[in-house]
Design a protein that fits this description.
Helix content of chain B: over 70%
Number of helices of chain B: 9
Largest sheet of chain A: 12 strands, mixed
CATH architecture of the largest domain in chain B: Orthogonal Bundle
Number of domains of chain A: 2
Order of helices and strands of chain B: HHHHHHHHH
Oligomer: heterodimer
CATH class of the largest domain in chain B: Mainly Alpha
Chain lengths: 434, 191
């Protein structure tokens, strides 16, 4: 100890300071306990997002099991403190969020239904409230020749998705099954879902950078499987390459920017998307999350989203190619490919001024949006799907067009003429070798 | 309230999800955090405000802590140090604190009935001198002379190398001594 230190030590010795006040100690204890994060009281259900508030006990157990697996995974792999950000903590912080708003700006080049090379701009203002169990997405899509605006409301307690198109005075309603609702909650493309999905893959630490004037840490993942966690716009197997960068405000440890790029192998479709303008735990008036549908708005269709019958739904989509496209099937079951193949057919069938398509047809058409997701679900669920639309047309009545496993020893086979047959593994091999 | 090392580790783990365990952990450490804050800020109301901030941060970040009881004390003091420095970083607040010290110093001195007058005068000079230093110097001085931490402990708490802490402390004590001497000279000249 040098002279200066000895001097200071001697100087400060015995100097009196105020003692702690038990009244403050008790008041603070009460405040802390009142604010004790509620999700921590039930740690096993904390990763199930909006759904956690409304699930029944049966599905709650399933979700809890998934959550435990995720928690173990995070604990083993992602308490990576070397980057300066504990990513698992960011996930937890996001799960503590009660409300949030952010913007998504997406440019898609080669979107189905547009001219080759045309870039479609899409902006989305997202407002979500885990307290109210609702999400609102105000979208603006700029296809050639105009802008289409819509407001989509996902009402978790009612298992309902409503899209309102004010300019057209139209709306559509889709009833969502419990299973599908949970799937949407898991894959809805909100920042918590994206971050969790990124942490499940090998990621690159991008280090510290100033993003929009804020000191931030980033990670990057390149993996086409991320697409299914980026919301319906990007899911559906359209992109063979997907790279996502996520930047977290170093101080608040919450996301400030997400950039994603994607491209198809053939280079026909590519996209760039940016999530920013994040605001967390802000006041959202309940009225903002309730659709107001004036009496003169027309319900264009009512649909249903379910899981578990993907194979049958895919057959229904393929049936449209028999009915409207001379039996020439799409080359793949990617959403973009299917849409690309059907759009010109329907444009021709329903030119401007012709009678409008029926509600039933619209209900069938809106399923196309999910065809890629359905196929991916079959793959993910181990149902070993295969599709041969690039080789088989409706004329080849006995050739295998599509098949998936319905139990350990049986496959459901869909032939070129869309008749189906359940066959053994051996029989399938025989049919596919024809 | 004393607990063994393993009990403390268990208590920290439980405190992440059990409010009662968190309350127990809080009560074990409240006094230490308050004392550190009041020695940094020389004002019990500000110290209480910052102590509140510290425990809210602890509550939200407890899940990321995975060390021993000794590490926990360092972790807690690191959070407290950041909170105090944030509080002081606001230049306006710092200026106001200085003005308050000058204005209230004499009153505090006059009101002291039970305390040693010389000690109180020393405290007033220490306040003025210490708060006029940069927060990094205030931090090492408080940790070293009030918390009685060793260089290695301070280094662990601040996430710096012991050699860095050594030179910080050397500069801090030299500056503080100079200011205290100047203050003592000035006060002597006024009396």
């Amino acid at each position: 100890m040098n002279d200066n230190e000895k001097y200071i030590e001697e100087y400060v010795k015995d100097i009196p300071f105020d003692a702690p006040d038990s009244k403050h100690r008790d008041e603070l204890k009460k405040e802390l306990l009142n604010a004790f994060p509620k999700h921590r009281l039930q740690p096993t259900v904390r990763t199930v997002g909006v759904w956690r508030t409304i699930m029944n006990s049966r599905t709650s157990k399933l979700a809890a099991a998934a959550a435990i697996i995720l928690a173990v995974f995070l604990a083993l792999n992602f308490f990576d403190k070397t980057s300066g950000i504990v990513w698992a903590e960011v996930v937890k912080r996001l799960e503590d969020i009660k409300t949030g708003t952010y913007k998504i700006a997406t440019d898609i080049k080669g979107m189905p239904g547009t001219a080759e090379g045309y870039t479609t701009h899409i902006t989305q203002d997202v407002m979500l409230s885990y307290e109210q169990g609702a999400v609102r997405i105000d979208s603006s899509l700029q296809p050639p020749g105009g802008t289409r605006k819509s407001h989509t409301y996902i009402l978790f307690e009612d298992s309902l998705m409503i899209t309102v198109m004010p300019a057209q005075k139209k709306y559509l309603e889709v009833k969502i099954s419990d299973e599908q609702m949970k799937k949407m909650d898991d894959e809805n493309g909100d920042p918590a879902t994206i971050l969790k999905a990124m942490l499940e893959h090998e990621y690159t630490d991008l280090g510290r950078r100033t993003i929009d004037g804020v000191a931030a840490w980033g990670i990057e993942v390149s993996n086409p499987k991320l697409g299914r966690n980026m919301g319906p716009l990007i899911s559906g197997g359209t992109f063979d390459e997907i790279t996502v960068q996520l930047w977290v405000d170093e101080k608040r440890e919450l996301p400030i920017k997400i950039n994603a790029t994607g491209s198809s192998k053939d280079g026909r479709v590519s996209m760039e998307t940016v999530y920013d303008s994040f605001q967390w735990d802000i006041k959202i008036e309940p009225a903002m999350l309730k659709p107001e549908i004036p009496d003169d708005y027309e319900l264009i269709t009512q649909g249903k989203w379910e899981t578990g019958n993907e194979g049958a739904e895919i057959i229904e989509i393929l049936r449209m190619f028999v009915e409207y496209a001379d039996g020439k099937y799409p080359a793949s079951l990617k959403t973009a490919t299917v849409t690309q193949a059907l759009v010109p057919v329907f444009k021709k069938k329903f030119p401007p001024g012709s009678p409008k398509p029926s509600k039933e047809l619209i209900a069938r058409l809106i399923k196309i949006d999910r065809v890629g997701m359905m196929y991916t679900t079959l793959e993910k669920d181990g149902k070993d799907p295969a599709y041969y639309g690039d080789k088989v047309s409706a004329e080849e009545a006995d050739a295998v067009l599509f098949r998936w496993k319905i139990d350990d020893n049986t496959y459901r086979v869909v032939f070129g003429d869309l008749k189906t047959e359940d066959v053994s593994v051996e029989k399938l091999a025989e049919l596919e070798n024809k | 309230m004393t607990v063994s090392e393993s009990e403390h580790v268990g208590l920290v783990q439980r405190a992440c999800s059990d409010p009662d365990a968190f309350a127990r952990l809080y009560l074990m450490h409240y006094d230490n955090v308050f004392r550190y804050c009041v020695r940094r800020l020389f004002d019990s109301h500000s110290a209480e405000d910052v102590t509140s901030t510290v425990f809210f941060k602890v509550m939200h970040n407890l899940g990321s802590f995975d060390g021993t009881a000794i590490d926990f004390r360092s972790w807690l003091l690191r959070i407290a140090t950041n909170a105090v420095n944030d509080h002081l970083r606001d230049a306006r607040r710092r200026t106001e604190a200085m003005k308050k010290i000058v204005k209230n110093g004499r009153a505090e001195f006059d009101m002291a009935i039970d305390c040693d007058a010389e000690l109180l005068e020393r405290k007033i000079m220490l306040k003025q001198a210490l708060l006029s230093l940069k927060p990094k110097y205030q931090t090492v001085i408080t940790l070293r002379f009030f918390e009685n931490m060793r260089l290695t402990e301070i280094a662990a708490c601040l996430g710096k190398k012991p050699s860095t802490v050594r030179s910080l402390l050397s500069r801090a004590t030299a500056k503080l001594r100079k200011k205290l001497n100047a203050a003592a000279g000035g006060r002597g000249a006024r009396q």
